[in-house]
Amino acid sequence: KMRWRYRLILLFAGWSLAAGNGFPEPPTCLAFEQAVLVGRALDPAIQEAEARYASADAQQAQVRASARPQVSAYGQTYDGASGVGDGRINNQYGLSVTQRIYDFGRSRLDQQRARSLAEAVAFELEGAENSSGYAVARAFLDVLRRTERADTSAQRNTYMLDLIGGLNVRVEASAITSAE
Question: Are 77 and 145 in contact (CB under 8 A)?
Answer without folding.
Answer: no
